[in-house]
Design brief:
This protein is mainly beta. About 10% of the residues lie in helices and about 35% in strands.
Amino acid sequence: MKRLLFLLLLIPVLSFGQTVFTYGGKAVTYGGKVLTYPAISAVLEDGNTVAWYIADNLTTITKDGSNLVSRWNDYLGSGRDLIQATGTNQPLWSANGILFDGVDNIMITANFGPYAQPYMIYMVLKQVTWGNNEYFYDLDKSGNDIITRSFGTTPAIQIYSGTVLGNDVNLIVNVFGITRSLHNGANSSLQVNNNAKTTGNAGNGNNGNGVILGGGSAGNYSNIQVKEFILRNVDDTDADETVIYNYLKDKYGL
């Protein structure tokens, strides 16, 4: 009997074509797969996650009848919420992620911090179009860039927090991928999906202060679509990084 119950627990449970996706006792619905990742909560709720934004969790999204997003709350409830009050600057929500138009769409948190390096950023996104020197995010609202950006020749991206590190050409235009950006002085790194990691010096930069998504403090708007965005104030161990990467890869079928 115990063996039968154990086997039943392994059977995927579908609910009208939606996925019941659980981690750490919390659940969201997401179309396509049934996955259970209890380990993800233990990692991302370890006290080192500064903010965690999930586009398919509508409890964290404030949008109007045209799906323009005015607020994207931190899933962990820190109050470090991405906000855009001006309608023309608001990105567009869809079931495929939050779309920034590359013209004037941007979301910004209130000031918080400062928080010192290291910063580990995980993003599930696609470059809808590629343009030179367009910022995916900026972690310093005061104007001292701490960024991942497109730069050079399509589809190359790089990170920068005082010194350039890149260019990685593996984030193909109009295809979703996972980026891992570690801002940690001489021990920084950039990786797209599970391709080879670029390592080296990205600079010490300033301390982080707030978050800008879809551009930077001086504009540099990017035409990107974002499914998930995680900011951690730690150089993750290989084990923790693998748990987070596999969670994102499996959840979004990448």
